[in-house]
Each structure stands twice: as structure tokens, then as C-alpha cells.
Amino acid sequence: MVFSAAVAEEPKLTRSSTPVSSSRTEAVAEIRKQDNAFSVMMESYQQIQELMIESDYDKQTQIGGSIANPKERERVIGLAKQARAQRLTKLASTMASFATAYGTTRKESEHKAGTTVASTASRESADEQLHKLVPFQPRNFRLENTTSPLVPAAAHMLFDDKKY
């Protein structure tokens, strides 16, 4: 007795036989995830830098305001304003450089995916996501001082989608 079974050949997958729509869809999704991550990172960086610049400026103007000599007081406050303006200009330049570098990498990703992807990331969306991050320390999961805008250096962040 001889059994003859028709064995279907396994389809050979080559670059040209992979479903284009599936791989493009995945590539587009990945690019959008990268856009979102970059947007959140840039927004957090900018907020932290602006907070430090403003904090330094406030301290300098407070010290300048305590100077008794009016001419010296105005000079010190003027220097603080100048330093603040220079730091904000430098920050804007740095942010533009980061965006340019990411844009180059993004274009390469689009080229590899074989499609262009409109960015849906925005500063407003990134800021909203940042407000949903909850800081905690690994040894201490409670927030002891929730009124402070400052986060301890050893803190980690959790995303809380129910916040706000």
C-alpha cells in the first residue's frame, strides 16, 4: 500500500513577497512612536532648562534688588536680564539643533520605510503627557511632598493615564 500525499510547498518569503502594506504600516507606527518619544523628551528638556534659567534669574534679581546703591542695583539687574536673554537664546539654538538632527534621522527612517509620514506630535501633546508622569523613588513609593514642582534626582517616572 502506497500513500501519496500532496505536500504544499512552504512559500518562500523574499523581500518582494512580504506584504508591503503590513511592513509600511509597522514602519509608520514606529516612526510615529519615535516622533512622540522625541517630542516628550524635547518638551521635558526645554521645561527643565527654562526652569533653571528662571530660577537663576530670580535669584540674581533678588540679590540685585537688595543692593542699596541705585546705580549698582540697576547694573546688576541689567546683567541678570542680559544673562537670562543669552541663555534663552542659546536654549532656542540648542533645541533647533536637536530638531534638525532628529529630522535627518527621521528622513532616513521614512526612506527605509518607502513612504513619508506626517508628524502628529506637538508640544501641547507632549506637555500633556508629561503632566501624567508620576515621580516615585524605588525605596519609597509614596510622594512625600506633592506640592513641590521639584523631583528628587533618584526618582523614576510612571505614566498615569488616569491623572488629569
Work out the number of β strands. 2
Task: Tell me roughly what share of residues is in helical segments.
Answer: 55-70%
Mean pLDDT: 79
How much of the polypeptide forms β-strand, as a percent range?
A: under 5%
Global morphology:
elongated
Spans of at least 5 consecutive residues whose pLDDT stays below 50 are: 1-20
Q: What composes the largest sheet?
A: 2 strands, antiparallel
H/E element string?
HHHEE
Structural class comes to: mainly alpha
Distance between the termini: 74 Å
| Distinct helical segment count | 3
What gyration radius follows from the Cα positions, in whole Å? 26 Å
Strand order of the largest sheet: 1-2
Summarize the structure.
Helix 1 (20-65) runs antiparallel to helix 2 (70-113) and helix 1 (20-65) packs across helix 3. Helix content is 60%, strand content 5%.
